[in-house]
Automatic annotation (TrEMBL):
It comes from Parendozoicomonas callyspongiae. One of its GO terms (molecular function) is 3-dehydroquinate synthase activity. CDD domains: DHQS. Pathway: Metabolic intermediate biosynthesis; chorismate biosynthesis; chorismate from D-erythrose 4-phosphate and phosphoenolpyruvate: step 2/7. Its cofactor is NAD(+); Co(2+); Zn(2+). Binds 1 divalent metal cation per subunit. Can use either Co(2+) or Zn(2+). This is 3-dehydroquinate synthase. It catalyses: 7-phospho-2-dehydro-3-deoxy-D-arabino-heptonate = 3-dehydroquinate + phosphate. SUPFAM superfamilies: Dehydroquinate synthase-like.
C-alpha cells in the first residue's frame, strides 16, 4: 500500500492506494468521529462492495443510504433523501458519512456532509478510476442544476481517502476510459514526464494491468494533492484542473446528464482547448496530435457531439464558474505540462474554434 498526504494544515488527510483495502479495518477506524456511521452508495456499487466494507466496520451501527445510479440523479432532490435517512436514524454532529462509489456518490456524500447539521466528517472510498484519480481528492463537493454542472456545492475536505484498485475488476470498460481522460489531463497540465509515461503505457492501462493502474492512480493523486495543497479553494492555480471542462461541462449539460460521461466530455473538451492553444500560437500541431492519439488509444471521443452548435456552446459556457464580470476564462496549454488560465482569448478565435469543432 502507498500513502500520500494532502497537506492542508489542520485539514490534512491521507490517501491510501493499494489492493484489497476495503476490508482493512485499521484504515478507516482511526478517522471515525463517534460510533455513528452512514454509508452512502448506489444500487450498482452496494451489491458489489457494501458487505465487504461493512465487515471492516463490525460492531458499529451503520445506516445504509442507497441512491439511484447515474449522473442524472446528482441533484438537490436526491441529495435530500440522504438528509431524510440521516434524520430518521437520528444521526448527530459526530456522525461520519462514508462515500462508497464513483464521483457522483463522492460529490453528493461530500456535499451532504458539508451541509448536515452545518458540517460533519466524511470519508471517501472511490470505486471508479475517475473517482480514485480525481473526484475523491480535494474537497470539491456538490450537485448539478438543470442549467449547469456542479452549480450548487461546497468545499469540504474528507478525513481520508481509501483507493482500493481491486474494485476496477468490475468497472465497465467505458468507465475505465472515462477515468483515463482525467489521468491524461494531469500529464498535459503539470506533469510532462507523466504524459510521456502514459504514451508508453496506455495499452497496459486499457488492458487493466494492475501495476500500471496503481502507478496511474498514484501519480495522478500526487499531482492533484500538490495543486490542491497550494490553492484549496481555487483562488488561482487550482483552476488548471479544469482543462477541457468549460467545453466539457457544456457538452454534459446540453446532451443531458449521464448521456456523455464526464470523462468523455472532458476528453472532447481537452482537444478543443489544445486546438485553441495552437491557434493562439502557444503550442504546436505535434502536441495537439499527441494528445489526440493518447485519448483515442484510451478509447475516448475527441470531437464534441455533432448536434451542438457554437451558439449553444457559448450560451452554456457563459455560466461557467470561472467567468468573472461576464468574461469567460479558459484553461489552455502553453506547452506540455504547462497550463494557464486566461481571459484574453480573442472572441473571433474562440468562435472559429467552435465553428471548426462543431463541423
Ligand atoms: N469533486 C471533484 O473534484 C470531481 C472531479 C472529477 C469529476 N467529478 C464528478 O464525478 C462524476 C463522475 O464520476 P464517475 O466517472 O466516477 O461516475 P459515476 O459515479 O457515475 O460512476 C460511473 C458508473 O460506474 C459504476 N461503478 C462505480 N464503481 C464501480 C465498480 N467498482 N464496479 C462496477 N461499477 C462501478 C457507477 O455505479 C456508475 O454507473 C461527475 O459528476 C463529475 O462531475 C468531481
Ligand atoms: O478538483 C478540481 O478543482 C477540478 O476542477 C477537478 C475536475 O476534474 C472536476 O470535474 C471538478 O468537479 C470540476 O469542478 P467545477 O468547479 O468546474 O465544477
Ligand atoms: Zn473533471
Amino acid at each position: 500500500m502507498q500513502t500520500l498526504k494532502v497537506d492542508l494544515g489542520d485539514r490534512s488527510y491521507p490517501i491510501y492506494i493499494g489492493s484489497s483495502l476495503l476490508d482493512q479495518d485499521d484504515l478507516i477506524h482511526p478517522f471515525l468521529n463517534g460510533s455513528q456511521i452512514a454509508i452512502v452508495s448506489n444500487e450498482t456499487v452496494a451489491p458489489l462492495y457494501l458487505q465487504t466494507l461493512k465487515q471492516s466496520l463490525s460492531g458499529l451501527k451503520i445506516t445504509e443510504v442507497i441512491l439511484p445510479d447515474g449522473e442524472q440523479y446528482k441533484n438537490l432532490d436526491v441529495l435530500n433523501t440522504i438528509f431524510d435517512q440521516l434524520l430518521k436514524d437520528v444521526h448527530g454532529r459526530k456522525t461520519t458519512l462514508i462515500a462508497l462509489g464513483g464521483g457522483v456518490i463522492g460529490d453528493m456524500c461530500g456535499f451532504a456532509a458539508a451541509c448536515y447539521q452545518r458540517g460533519v466528517d466524511y470519508i471517501q472510498i472511490p470505486t471508479t478510476l475517475l473517482a480514485q484519480v480525481d473526484s475523491s481528492v480535494g474537497g470539491k463537493t456538490g450537485v448539478n442544476h438543470a442549467l449547469g454542472k456542479n452549480m450548487i456545492g461546497a468545499f469540504h475536505q474528507p478525513k481520508c481517502v481509501v483507493a482500493d484498485i481491486s474494485v476496477f475488476k468490475t468497472l465497465p470498460d467505458r468507465e475505465l476510459s472515462a477515468g483515463l481522460a482525467e489521468v491524461i489531463k494531469y500529464g498535459l497540465i503539470c506533469d510532462a514526464p507523466f504524459f510521456e509515461w502514459l504514451e508508453a503505457n496506455i495499452e497496459k492501462l486499457v488492458a487493466r494491468d494492475e501495476k500500471a493502474l496503481a502507478e496511474a492512480v498514484l501519480r495522478s493523486c500526487q499531482n492533484k494533492a500538490e495543486v490542491v495543497a497550494e490553492d484549496e479553494k481555487e483562488g488561482g492555480r487550482r483552476a488548471i484542473l479544469n482543462l477541457g471542462h468549460t467545453f466539457g461541462h457544456a457538452i454534459e449539460t446540453h446532451e443531458g446528464y449521464g448521456v456523455w460521461l464526464h470523462g468523455e466530455a472532458v476528453a472532447a473538451g481537452t482537444v478543443m482547448a489544445a486546438d485553441l492553444s495552437k491557434k493562439l500560437g502557444w503550442i504546436d500541431e505535434a502536441l495537439v496530435q499527441r494528445a489526440i492519439k493518447l485519448l483515442v488509444k484510451a478509447k475516448l471521443p475527441v470531437v464534441p457531439p455533432q448536434d451542438m452548435t457554437p451558439a449553444q456552446f457559448m450560451e452554456l459556457m457563459s455560466v461557467d464558474k470561472k467567468v468573472v464580470d461576464g468574461k469567460l476564462r479558459l484553461v489552455l496549454l502553453k506547452g506540455l505540462g504547462e497550463a494557464v488560465v486566461t481571459g484574453d482569448v480573442p472572441q473571433d478565435l474562440l468562435h472559429s474554434q467552435l465553428e471548426e469543432s462543431c463541423k
